[in-house]
Design a protein that fits this description.
- By secondary structure, the chain is α+β, with helices and mostly antiparallel strands.
- It has twelve helices and 22 strands.
- The protein has a five-stranded parallel beta sheet with strand order 3-2-1-4-5, sandwiched between helices. Strands 12-15-18-22-19 form a five-stranded antiparallel beta sheet. It has a four-stranded antiparallel beta sheet with strand order 6-9-7-8, sandwiched between helices.
- The chain is globular, with a radius of gyration of 20 Å.
- The termini are far apart.
- The mean pLDDT is 94.
């Protein structure tokens, strides 16, 4: 079959790598892809407007389209493709509102009894600032819309929180969510789901802030490990019953057809697990540590999701562990340099480089984004995988690269 893969980051390189392992896949076309994906797929570069991507699908006639990023999902690309008769892995725009609007997702959680932090949503700065001065700090201030993982401020003072509110509205966002700060270990709980059945992936943990010790600015993610063993049997049952199953039941009761990956960002508090947020696609960099552990054919899993027969399939997972260290451009997540020459090592079965922001300049590999490379290692346990990933980092020639040195430390 021919697969059309939408996206250009490290998640999409990991997807292309896993899809290419399927004996059912004869060709991958990636739009727009990156220099690493180009080694596995034929790249095409339409604009990322839905109309341009629809035209691309018409001309390529893929048997399966896989949508990686959240932006086209929220924009309704899956709906548009399905109306054209294409098979698509990725939820509808109606379903994608769970990520596209944090205000909507919070209302959904409360309406369906899903444990989460107390919150208020505001569509102008005046009432938000008034609430902040009454509520006090610490609080978490969130841009309700899509912000590439960077629209969150954990504010330890009212002054810091107020500045975050003002910055979000000044940037043109329509809604701000202010919620109580939850304390505990944060984990990424991802599932494949056809709307009725779900199959969990190995539990991952990512590292969102740019500096060691979870300090500094929020990023799209600086690394991840999987699996993590932070859920005992009782807590796992609570997550399944009160969060995952209530979410799927809530979607069905709201008339929402959800098929794809659903990502639950969980905080394990002293009061039990609570839901921080939904993502409506595979996480980045969680994908880079989860897919290397999948023993099943990814295309078979995607087919079962699309055809609503996931209940008939039990994906297999290895007993290994994986770690990812993100190498970012100097200046990221602010203004960062581009066009930096890169020299990589030859990947192996257990040590891989998934490209994120890379391109070719006169045939030479250069950086083209903020998060540039993902060094991923697979080993018998998390500690060994982390050590192997950092050994891989040391073999990369990337002048000025910044990366966290404490991935896996939690």
């Amino acid at each position: 079959m021919k697969v059309l893969l939408i996206g250009s980051g490290g998640r999409e390189h990991a997807l292309a790598w896993k899809l290419a392992q399927s004996p059912r896949v004869r060709e991958i076309v990636a739009a727009p892809g990156n220099a690493g994906i180009a080694e596995l797929a034929r790249l095409v570069a339409p604009t990322q407007e839905p109309g341009s991507l629809i035209d691309l699908a018409r001309s390529e006639a893929p048997d399966l389209t896989v949508i990686g990023p959240e932006v086209p999902l929220v924009a309704g690309l899956a709906d548009d493709l399905e109306r054209e008769g294409f098979r698509v892995f990725g939820p509808s725009a109606q379903a994608a509102r769970l990520e596209g609007s944090k205000a909507h997702s919070k209302e959904f959680m409360l309406r369906h009894g899903i444990p989460t932090a107390q919150h208020r949503s505001f569509d102008s700065s005046g009432p938000a600032l008034e609430y902040l001065h009454r509520r006090g700090a610490p609080v978490v201030v969130k841009d309700s819309g899509l912000a590439a993982g960077k629209g969150v401020t954990v504010a330890s003072s009212v002054t810091e929180a107020a500045a975050a509110v003002e910055a979000i509205f000044a940037a043109g966002s329509a809604t701000v969510v202010i919620e109580d700060l939850l304390v505990g270990q944060e984990i990424s709980y991802l599932v494949f789901t056809d709307g009725h059945h779900y199959r969990p992936m190995p539990i991952a943990q990512d590292y969102k802030q740019v500096e060691e010790g979870d300090r500094g600015a929020m990023t799209g993610g600086m690394g991840a490990v999987a699996p993590v063993t932070l859920l005992d049997e009782r807590t796992s049952q609570v997550v399944a019953r009160d969060i995952v199953e209530r979410t799927l039941a809530g979607l069905r009761s709201d008339g929402v057809d959800y098929r794809g990956v659903l990502y639950f960002g969980l905080m394990l508090t002293d009061e039990g697990p609570k839901l921080l947020e939904y993502n409506v696609r595979l996480g980045d960099p969680e994908t880079q540590v989860v897919l290397p552990l999948l023993g099943s054919d990814l295309v078979d899993v995607m087919d079962a999701v699309i055809d609503r027969r996931l209940g008939e399939l039990e994906p297999s997972w290895t007993d290994l562990a994986a770690a990812c260290v993100v190498m970012a451009a100097p200046g990221y997540p602010g203004i960062y340099r581009q066009g930096i020459p890169l020299r990589l090592f030859a990947p192996s079965e257990r040590l891989m480089v998934f490209h994120a922001g890379t391109a070719r300049d006169s045939g030479n590999l250069v950086s083209s984004g903020g998060r540039v490379l993902n060094i991923v290692a697979v080993a018998e346990d998390v500690r060994s995988a982390v050590d192997a990933a950092y050994a891989g980092v040391r073999r990369i020639d990337f002048p000025g690269a910044q990366f966290r040195r404490d991935i896996g430390s939690r």
